[in-house]
Fold each of these.
Amino acid sequence: MDKNQNNTKILSVSIACYNVEKYLDQTLGSCLVPEITDKLEVIIVNDGSGDGTADLAKKYAEKAPGTFVLIDKENGGYGSTVNAGIKAATGRYFRLLDGDDWFDTDGLKEFIRILENAHEDMIITRFRRVFESDGHTEERDEGEKIPFVTGKFDELPDDAWFTMHAVTYRTSLLKDNSVTITEHCFYTDQEYDLLPLRWVNTVRIAPVTVYCYRIGRGEQSVSVAGLEKHYNEQTTVLKKLYGIYSDAHLCRNRKEKYIYKYFVKRTRFHIRTHLVISESERHKRDLIEFMNYLRAEQPDIYRDLLAQSRFVKLLIWSRFRTYGILHRVMLKKYRY
């Protein structure tokens, strides 16, 4: 039995906060739900903010001390907030919420009800993407093709794909296996998606929309400006994950097959990033260097990228002479 089974807190939510005063009231307010406050633990990790983030967080911690916990720390990057949240968590389950996003209140209540009777290692929920530009929304259901409510990871279909907006883990799985995310680095949510999978055996699909993901804020790491500033940190994260799962390409079981496909897809996204940021000789050299690394160190991923991606194939076929053309094409298609 899970060692936290008798804990009154069902879900611990770790909120990464860095200069999000403008958004935090909506974020924390979405967690302040009377029907579930005794079952929810909200860990607000202030990562050295320079605005009023900490003061606003303190107000919520004072308003509902049994629900909100404030960790005020020096800046260490997104990964450091996840590590602090895992360390402090006391709930049976654990999930992330970014400081500029929020929960669907009705969905959160239903999710807590589901978790009260759950025992699986990983829970997959729906989420909503909310676009700042015009307010339109998109519902995402990463579990819609899963042919079961509860089952084993090895029973997942080949095209399964889960991101941090959908994933909740059993807290003891993270703690007992010392899951640790890279600090002082962007894009480490991908480590949260992947690192715990070594110990995930059972999965539950919860058909409820919980997370509301704000898209289009200029400071986001997925904005073009954010990508340009931090794209090499994505290289760092990918290389770390390649190293941890160095034999995933062997695909001896469904989990390794999933991990390998994750690598191919994330690597394709990363190459696309090089084609979205500003066109320059430096960025072109970085792209060529990354592709050369893949060819030498990750030949299976390199091979499958060539087979699956027309723009990768065109880059290699032209010896990167099509870099400028592809940059203009990809920039028009980029939606964030």
Amino acid sequence: MNIGIFYASAGGTTKEVVDGLVEAFEIEDESVIFMEDDYDDLEQFEPFDVLFIGSSTWGQGDAHFSWVDAMLEIENDGDFSGKKVAFFGAGDAKKHGEQFCSALGKLHKVFTKAGAKAIGFVDKDEYNYEFSLAEMDDKLCGLAIDNHNEKEKTPQRIDAWIENLKSELGV
């Protein structure tokens, strides 16, 4: 199983999850793509069977700006059939509770519409927010991190999510 991580991080919270994934799944540096500096085109996704997709949420629930072009490319030309995708990212449930980690929901929509199978859903009851596009069938479509209000829960959330991913992937 070939795993790739594609992520954007402004404040470092999303990168914290990346570090945990790299260690847990023994992912090589060349398989970790920082969207702002390392992303070129859709071909970079091709070698991977499993994708870990990360972004913080900005504005009205948008993914980090460095995801904009990639999301448009995926919508227009992406074929992710046969790939498994897990989403993770950062948000602020108090200051931006009306769009808490909604970037995950937008990324989920783009990737699954292109044929990917989403994994790594998380129980939404562990969080307190008003609304999120990441909420689907009483779960969040990925790992949501809120270091602004619940930093003390971050290590346990990351560890539990990684264990869940390992189980879903049969690792």
Amino acid sequence: MRFVVVTGMSGGGKSTALKMLEDAGFYCVDNLPVSLVGMFVEMISSPASEASKVALGLDVRSGQSFCKAEEILDRLRENGFVYEVLFLDASERVLLKRYKETRRRHPLSLSGERIETGIRREKEILRRTREKAEYVIDTSNLLTRELKEELERIFIRNEEYNSLMVNIVSFGFKYGIPADADLVFDVRFLPNPFYIEELKHHTGNEKDVQDFVMSYPESHAFLEKLTEMLQFLIPNYIREGKYQLVIGIGCTGGRHRSVTLANMLYRQMKDKGNYGLKLSHRDVDIQRNN
């Protein structure tokens, strides 16, 4: 039997993950009273149980009770019961935005307290659980379908998993460097398609612009050296427990050179490692929409 404990930050995507696991054939139970956790485990692990895949949702709403649930699970593991922990996380900025959009009060924010206070209190309570989790998925920049893909990779296809999500982001320097970028690369040294009349109003998502940008040997040299560097860095980031790596590739307006190179880098890295990979173009449509 496969037993998964689904937990994480409030607003991190726990409910969404449980629904996806349920659709994948898991028997899912959420918000079970802590006093019943041990009894539930005994029931589903008995010979009479027909459950082969079970997911148990635990959250921090009850505060102190969560610590008791951790103690129960630790004892179960000491007694030979095998389970995995899936931890759904997100940045404080994103969690705050999600709470403000839904106008909900954070479960650990006391009356009159700011949402940020509850988020930080919860993060401290969950710190140990996050460190020990087999799978940590940062949903800050994930679409629902991308989260589903990650869960399918782990729990359906049973692929080897490292909790690193690599985000390749193209952007325009004129609109500012992405605030969450870990690594930033400037490709403004390449010839700019903006000054070619027939390419000016197109983007690096289109073949004509890509062909122009990649017609220069400097583009290929840059891509080769960047790929080689990332192949060195990513295993070391995984070893150190990093959960998210944001790679920013920028040009002047974020529509031609940076988009092309981001697309090429994504193709180079896709399916080359056991990490999540996402591509986005932050500024590609700004001028087009103005």
Amino acid sequence: MKAYVFPGQGAQFVGMGKDLYDNVPEAKELFEQANNILGFRITGIMFSGTDEELKQTQVTQPAIFLHSVILAKSLGNDFKPEMTAGHSLGEFSALVAAGALSFEDGLILVSKRAQAMQKACEMNPSSMAAIIGLDDKVVEDICNDTNGIVIAANYNCPGQLVISGTNDAVEEACRKATEAGAKRAMKLNVGGAFHSPLMKPARVELEEAINSAPFMEPICPIYQNVDAKPYTDPAKIKENLIAQLTAPVRWTQIVQNMLADGADSFTELGPGSMLTGLIKKVDRKTETESKQSL
């Protein structure tokens, strides 16, 4: 079975999507539609902006969504997913690519999500860090034993877990992880504590927008971040999408479940190739492909 996966924040690079804009008329039309919906020329930042401009959450998230979704749409009849998933923000790309949301509604939700997360980050100075080389249970115990708010936020692959929380708590947990034998415990260059309780204000803000958006049944199951299980019911998809902002991303479990359900090849659509790398760490023998253009 063919699985398509979609990257999240951090995969962006200047120049992303430009070849689609230049060579595929339908893609150019969608990019221009996005400029109108967003009220600014995001294509200018994507194609020729600075790293700093592209790194702002309210730009990064719609940019990655656009690259991923427009690439999927540019594949035309070659895009025939039997299952899909996306990492964090990538879940929105997966939903639109699989027909659960329209392009316009998906982009509006992603933009609102990015702005809400940016605001939540400014309200609570916070951060994330990658812990490499420890079992998940060890990292979870460290988080539980640390003062303040810090949780296991991204289960990326065996031996790689990202923690998220207040600055002091993340630093303390990193120190404890190093003492426990972690190969690395490094702070990530992100705006705040994504997928933690500190995103609650963003979740409240986004809940209304998600509930009022028209969701449809997708063309294939979507494995969602909150519990790594496949869904096609629009009501359940909405519920999981709302919970996603303050819940961990269970990527390791998503890949394991897709493999168990018959996935024999994974294609990553969008900037970077981070997800194909993580999939290989779950199962080295799995066939993977990373596509950034046609």
